[in-house]
Amino acid sequence: MNESFKAPGKIEPAGVGGAVHVVNDSFKTSGDMNESFKTSGEARQDRTARTAEGRGRPEWTGPARSDWHWGQGQSHHKLGTMTGLLTERLHQASENAVAMWTALARARGDRVLDRPGFTAIDGRRYRVMLRTGDPDAATTRELTELAREKRAEGRTVVVEDPFRVLDLRHVGMAAGQLPVMVREPAPAPEPAGVVRVRSADALAAAVDIVVGGFPLEEYQGDDADDVFPRSLLTEPGPAFFADPGRGACLTMEHGGVGGAYWVTTLPEHRSKGVGRALMHAVLRHFEDRPVTLTAARAGKPLYDKLGFTGLGDANWWR
Q1: Which residues contact 200 (CB under 8 A, 6 or more apart)?
Q2: What 8-state DSSP symbol labels residue 144?
Q3: What does pTM read for this prediction?
Q4: Which among 21, 44, 187, 304 would be 20 to 30 A from 291, CA to CA?
């Protein structure tokens, strides 16, 4: 969940690297990660620097540069230059996010529009998630018209394009980039102090942490059941974890991978290992499956240390 764009805060040293964002001041997860994204120009500069230093790239089978294309305000890569495994992981990360948002939308009573090439969630924001790296003309046209129409109605529209194949500048939108990452199955330490949330009361406490600490401004003051409805506790995919009174996060199991979202540490408990412990809980929960996430760029070095691999930067159009 990813709502307002903000500059990144300080990184929690104990933060969990990579699959879950140890939310420091605006250190988020793939849920509403509109927070600390970079503009296309900044991302190009950042990527150029990282390339020069020989780090921060997925493993490529093709030339390091000739398959990257820079447009005005937009960057994208050819999925064909990625290894088969990394391409599969990118699609799995995308489908996991779609499944998480769909489960959340249905629990909240929001409308879901499913198409072969994209899914749209009509909630507090109008969120469109591209599901293919090779959308046909009809998919691109319908998605674009939806974005145009909802913006004309005064709605806040977010289009997530993890494959970087869309160009929505002509409808007045601008793209920011956020890295998509994966960690393959590997042992993780015991998560000290972290428990799985199983009751409505414990979920309400976790909601308070995420809404206040992430933060999710548009949900502040709302009933906890309007944010993360208790019905999610009995769904087969979602799972909540909390360090009571200090931190919380949501995970999603779908498509052969686990996804981490809204990993949050309250401000007064940052830099005390809470985020790291939450991440360890997530990694142990998905012990035999890869874990994917969309990272705040400020958290990427920590994720690198935890064994996460970059799959490329997703475009978030607003």
Answers
A1: 230, 233
A2: H
A3: 0.77
A4: 44
